[in-house]
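Repro case for the chain-ordering regression, as requested:
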Amino acid sequence: MWRAAHRLISHRSKNLCDPRWNPNFHNSIQSYSSGFTYNFGRTCKPFNPYLRRQGSDVQICIYPTRDYIENLHGSTELCYGKSFRIQNRFYGSATTKIQRNPIFSTINSDDINHFREILGEKNVIQDEDRLSAANMDWMRKYKGSSKLLLQPRSTEEVSQILKYCNSRCLAVVPQGGNTGLVGGSVPVFDEVIINIGSMNNIISFDKVSGILVCEAGCILENLISFVDNQGFIMPLDLGAKGSCQIGGNISTNAGGLRLVRYGSLHGNVLGLEAVLANGTVLDMLGTLRKDNTGYDLKHLFIGSEGSLGVVTKVSILTPPKLSSVNVAFLACKDYLSCQKLLLEAKRKLGEILSAFEFIDNQSFNVVLNHLEGARNPLPPSMHNFYVLIETTGSDESYDKEKLEAFLLHSMEGGLVSDGVLAQDINQASSFWHIREGIPESIMKAGAVYKYDLSIPVEKMYDLVEEMRVRLGHSAKVMGYGHLGDSNLHLNISTPQYDDAILAQIEPFVYEWTSKHRGSISAEHGVGLMKANKIHYSKSAETVQLMASIKKLLDPNGILNPYKVLPGSLASSS
Amino acid sequence: MWRAAHRLISHRSKNLCDPRWNPNFHNSIQSYSSGFTYNFGRTCKPFNPYLRRQGSDVQICIYPTRDYIENLHGSTELCYGKSFRIQNRFYGSATTKIQRNPIFSTINSDDINHFREILGEKNVIQDEDRLSAANMDWMRKYKGSSKLLLQPRSTEEVSQILKYCNSRCLAVVPQGGNTGLVGGSVPVFDEVIINIGSMNNIISFDKVSGILVCEAGCILENLISFVDNQGFIMPLDLGAKGSCQIGGNISTNAGGLRLVRYGSLHGNVLGLEAVLANGTVLDMLGTLRKDNTGYDLKHLFIGSEGSLGVVTKVSILTPPKLSSVNVAFLACKDYLSCQKLLLEAKRKLGEILSAFEFIDNQSFNVVLNHLEGARNPLPPSMHNFYVLIETTGSDESYDKEKLEAFLLHSMEGGLVSDGVLAQDINQASSFWHIREGIPESIMKAGAVYKYDLSIPVEKMYDLVEEMRVRLGHSAKVMGYGHLGDSNLHLNISTPQYDDAILAQIEPFVYEWTSKHRGSISAEHGVGLMKANKIHYSKSAETVQLMASIKKLLDPNGILNPYKVLPGSLASSS
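-- result from build under test --
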């Protein structure tokens, strides 16, 4: 205990700041990790399909970021640098076979001419390369066969497109950065792709209230930079920020790295403009924190994955930027201690707590064994759980002292068995490197079955333990994730893929999650992938009402068909 | 400048805490204010209609709290202690004359018998006194003529009631604590009153995540006490907490005192159970911070004032309780300085800022002239604006030093002309007393026309100034409110009420608010009072969609008729 306390005190930092906010972070990490080129969110961009046209070959280069890797649910191919190399495959629920809905028309030359009149020649795209990229998601898991991509530049153009498509019963798929993980942003068959990327203007920013109004096609990273220059941060940050667009973020209700601190988009989005299937423009673009005049309809469009309307403009509350960041890496003897520590952290650190991540011993060992550059920050004792705590506040010395006092108190109380407080940016980065490196490490260890679940925190780890009992020696079961958000990443590793193992895992994992009132999709949405699994997390009556609302807003079902709702309901509602 | 800085430094507090959290606060205030018996939210309960039966006479005793007084929009009678005394009248938009919708049936003896079968004899109430109380809102502005009050004890009973009412086309009004301000919770004609107050069980509390699940009839103050004992606070606090129920809070999307810090109920409510008009129970009672499985339908019921369904259970995220509270009272030379100060406070105090209230010189003078016990905390210089800043954090000494540093910096930068930091609870209370006493002071000064508006912060005070130009010497125009929430309380005072003045104010005030994309109801909802004014804040297309959703969820329109939506749309949709 004393050693640990001493260690905590001795690692005082003078210049620690959030590595994700530091433009030099990438270089720092590289030098620290002796040549390892793992790319973090800030300095790399996830795969942008359009890049494929610019290269001299068709190699696909995906730089996996924390968010991406840990949330892949299908099979994919990853490579590093320029050499195409199959890294591994992820396993999980296969997508259901579906048939094209014959109610939808197919594109003809009159349609093309009409769209050219609305949008001009160059924004009506039939080029095969462009279409090929837009037809496929970045994981290369979902592939449509659209023959037409439209690039509107204004809400009015979106409205005209949808009004026409609705009258012709042409199905459409709204597409932002196409960085989704559940097949929500690519066509399933020949839907017309409406890409919002040309609508990328910032409309206004209120420096007093921190309220940003912009078009839906703005790339998240550009917005982050813009508000950063004004002294604010976006309440949303995720690995795909270099490509994803704010309209897509809102349509999928993206969670990301800052949710534990700033809450969900339902709390931060103040207003929206959206276009309905029939072309009606819904102006709900308020910029007010308080507005109780009628039903707050914008929430219907947050997380409905473009199936109720196309989001065209956004108003969002951005918090002020804070300068002081501290990171600690701790060991706990059991899961109960992790829970109690979270409770204490919320109380004692309260307003400065910005991350609370947990890692079980099995995940931790995989990192030490398989991740280049990963080192145990603690003396080599056996611990069952590890916790990474990050604080972000406005006063460095106060915040650090507060964190130190909290950690000492937690150690004296027995909640923490050992721990270290980062003394500089390199050490902070190395702590995050362990947490962020888990998915990659597990990939290297063999085949992996991945689940991204939201489960009440007191029950969360029971699933991991039950799964261990269930699978016995046939698989390694690992649990880690965002404890502060009750978000578990359940990873099951085997030497090679085995149908029998999958049958042991599913539907058990969904049924267990459902039984404990968890969510089978914590933050990625339903898309195509889980449209027929929504009943695991939502009651029949609720799903039926969703279908009725879909029918009300989009009677012909032209908006992002085959997604979100079970096929049976979508057609019969 | 130096004097002011010195004053700030000299007023260090050792034992300051939030008066609203201190059970002895009421006594402290009383002794401080030399016998003045202004009652604060914690120690008094707003008028509970049922109390009328218990008294030996019919005197109505309303203890006005900050929230209540400043938000009254109609005429009312107030008294203090036991003596009935007409205090004043508030003026504003008159309610529109409406006709009973003949589609609705009237109650007969078969109905009564049926309800007795469902609920038992004692929960089917026809007693005149009970009905008389439930037919009227606490302001005595709205009065219905219901002949029946039902008190279900479970969701199943609510479901059976609604299913029957829907089949018989009997209109209903859901009622919680009946503390609303827009006539949303009382019958307009003979609607059946469904009072949820018997459903007041706490179902669960997760001490790690702070997630509370309870029935909708729980009184807010009881929930505040319950989670307080667990080391948490409700993210919602308002003057009516002694009577209002959480189901009603959610149905009106109540704002309250903590919104600037913890955000709206759309961010804090994690799940709901609601019963639709046809008796269908929608189980959306998730307890997860992250859940992206389909449309997030609970938001439809937050703020829809019982017109889409009856909320029966609630899951809500409660933040950890923090112990350190500091209050400063400052003077600024102009409104721009107030705005800049808010920006600085958000940045420098960031995570500990819990209130940012502004008061203009006109409001301040009215308080000094009319409010018993009010004293100017600053030397008697002329200032144009005053700002009250409160911080709430987890470490008293750190937080206080942080606030002091911020204040000194703001004075050096010229944003603050003078200021004082409360040195003890009495001084903190006296600062809040000024802010909270404004509505009462204005009442004493004459007739008052009151508007509760949400306007983008940079434009907010323009309305006050334009109104001054518009009204000239005929009226005194005052502006104050929650600058941190962009919530303006516009008060116009005249020696006596005058139709000509009202005609000068309205519809100008609504048109101006609408033109600047403000809200004509910041936090009280639409109810009966503003059902025909909703178009000032919402577009025609949006209101039309609201009406379509109402029609979808409640085809017979039995739920809280005549409220929220314009009469024309409600019947034609």
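Ordering looks correct now. Chain A touches chain B through 98 residues (CB under 8 Å).
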